[in-house]
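FORM 12-B: Structure-to-Sequence Request
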């Protein structure tokens, strides 16, 4: 038996045009595709595939259905076999379960809890008293209750236990609420409290439509110095680097419009969709990841980046563009007026104003050339050489051979550097912070990527070589997760300046020596992403293990069962998180920890 949520995921992620196109030569006809029907003889095409709705129909023989029914009919498979066939073709792993109680889906309770929370947040928004300020805030942002209903928006009252108490009345376990991040604890107290308070709530859906997490935005009047946006932590059903906010609604519009608008946050997505731009998504509080780029590649190759135009926004734009280029996509940069973001632009000037800026969007390389021109980078030989270095990273990132060839010609024409010289530069491994893949290593003996170095050092070396990793590491780690004080200082310096290339004046002598050594360490960039993930997970696992050991000591020191109970819940939550990070070593780590509570070994 295949669980329903997996069936829905396969249905949502499968490209029905590609699947049917293996058997039938489809031709595009507006928003649909047509062909002669594969199920009966005909001379004039009457068979249509509608990707926006995910179904096919024949006006001749009247057969109709979805991607599964087509495969069943064409290949003579049963339903389970058809789901497996489509899943394998779409690169989706299927995990069958025995035909027992539906409750045995291990993630079922988590989905049920999030569904309850979404409905509870929506009711608070509609409540005549508690939701008044939230409704007024949304109205001021041009979003009426119809838009709120369409996107499932809600409101978390500014109370410490409102959701916790409501969930308890319905029998939901506090441990599960901690696991999905609806509750949180602090360093000062282990007493769980509502994570989201005084915030507009944005449910985050998987492609199947199930709620896996939440984002919350403060109402300005209630901000009180807190972060503007607060997001659910990672959980067994939520991995923010593998999802995009809004994709569950936008994917059909993306395929229809043959392009995706990528914005920075929840409010931009909702505001643009409310103004008629339905092909819009946003990363979930992280720099755009390769996994997110792969998601976008399923639906369209043209990507429009609508990030802020300040210095930080431009850095984020070009990092995202390189990630997209590496997956064979074609990113363009949309430049908005100074001080405007997509939300303020459509609210203040209307949809037509944004469309005009979309029409003026530039390919990422053209936008880089434009900025370099504006900053007078082609006024001297020295600055032109620096401009070439800045452009090479984008050329290297381009996986599409034709696009890469166009880039080389453009840069050669603008800088006067011969094509052969540029191609020789591209074959060399980048010597500083650069993205992309070097096609051929330099003509010296190959250097191991990260030869026998600890996780903390590995991670910092990769962050120095590729500033895009700084944002990703910051999403998962804090400085306190580093045991080595010098590496902790370097990590903090990189958070302050991702382009760091020399020691800050206030850095201590040992940390400065370590940083200079890292800056001078060469390595082959092949496999860097896998090494980054491994180092990051190693540090996270050690930090979790360390915290669990501390909690175990507190459990042993606790005098009463009442004092022990919240500590046990927290330890169980940390154990689940550790198991999710490192399932192979989790059992051995747990056995060691229970055998010796004082043990906390680390390979630094």
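FORM 12-B RESPONSE
SEQUENCE OUT:
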């Amino acid at each position: 038996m295949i669980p329903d949520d997996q069936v829905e995921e396969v249905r949502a992620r499968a490209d029905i045009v590609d699947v049917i196109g293996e058997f039938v030569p489809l031709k595009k006809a507006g928003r649909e595709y047509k062909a002669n029907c594969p199920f009966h003889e005909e001379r004039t095409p009457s068979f249509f595939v509608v990707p926006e709705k995910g179904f096919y129909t024949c006006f001749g023989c009247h057969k109709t259905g979805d991607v599964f029914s087509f495969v069943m009919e064409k290949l003579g498979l049963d339903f389970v076999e058809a789901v497996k066939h489509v899943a394998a073709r779409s690169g989706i792993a299927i995990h069958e379960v025995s035909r027992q109680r539906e409750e045995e889906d291990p993630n079922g309770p988590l989905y049920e809890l999030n569904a309850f929370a979404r409905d509870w947040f929506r009711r608070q928004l509609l409540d005549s008293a508690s939701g008044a300020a939230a409704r007024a805030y949304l109205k001021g942002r041009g979003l009426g209750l119809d838009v709120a209903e369409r996107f499932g928006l809600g409101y978390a009252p500014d109370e410490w236990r409102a959701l916790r108490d409501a969930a308890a009345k319905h029998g939901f376990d506090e441990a599960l609420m901690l696991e999905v991040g609806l509750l949180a604890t602090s360093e000062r107290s282990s007493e769980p409290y509502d994570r989201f308070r005084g915030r507009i709530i944005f449910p985050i859906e998987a492609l199947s439509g199930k709620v896996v997490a939440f984002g919350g935005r403060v109402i300005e009047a209630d901000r009180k110095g807190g972060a503007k946006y607060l997001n659910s932590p990672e959980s067994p059903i939520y991995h923010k680097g593998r999802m995009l906010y809004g994709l569950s609604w936008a994917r059909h519009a993306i395929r229809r419009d043959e392009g995706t608008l990528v914005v920075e946050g929840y409010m931009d997505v909702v505001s643009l969709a409310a103004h008629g731009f339905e092909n819009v998504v946003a990363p979930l509080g992280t720099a755009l990841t390769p996994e997110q780029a792969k998601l976008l590649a399923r639906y369209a190759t043209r990507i429009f980046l609508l990030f802020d135009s300040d210095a930080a926004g431009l850095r984020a734009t070009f990092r995202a563009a390189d990630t997209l280029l590496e997956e064979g996509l074609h990113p363009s940069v949309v430049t908005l007026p100074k001080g405007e973001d997509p939300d303020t632009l459509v609210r203040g000037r209307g949809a037509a104003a944004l469309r005009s800026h979309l029409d003026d969007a530039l390919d990422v390389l053209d936008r880089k050339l434009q900025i370099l021109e504006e900053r007078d980078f082609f006024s001297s030989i020295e600055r032109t050489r620096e401009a070439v270095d800045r452009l090479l990273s984008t050329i290297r990132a381009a996986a599409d051979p034709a696009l890469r060839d166009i880039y080389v010609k453009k840069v050669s024409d603008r800088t006067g550097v011969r094509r052969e010289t540029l191609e020789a530069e591209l074959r060399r491994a980048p010597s500083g912070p650069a993205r992309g893949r070097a096609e051929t290593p330099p003509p010296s003996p190959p250097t191991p990527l990260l030869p026998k170095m600890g996780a903390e050092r590995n991670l910092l070396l990769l962050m120095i070589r590729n500033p895009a990793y700084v944002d990703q590491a910051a999403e998962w780690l804090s400085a306190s997760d580093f045991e080595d004080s010098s590496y902790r200082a370097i990590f903090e310096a990189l958070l302050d300046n991702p382009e760091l290339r020399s020691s800050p004046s206030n850095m201590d002598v040992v940390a400065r020596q370590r940083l200079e050594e890292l800056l001078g360490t060469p390595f082959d960039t092949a496999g860097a992403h896998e090494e980054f993930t491994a180092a990051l997970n190693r540090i996270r696992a050690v930090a979790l293990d360390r915290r669990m050991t501390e909690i175990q000591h507190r459990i042993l020191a606790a005098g009463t069962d009442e004092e022990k109970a919240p500590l046990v819940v927290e330890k169980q939550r940390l154990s689940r998180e550790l198991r999710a990070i490192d399932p192979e070593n989790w059992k051995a780590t747990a056995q060691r920890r229970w055998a010796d509570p004082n043990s906390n070994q680390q390979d630094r």
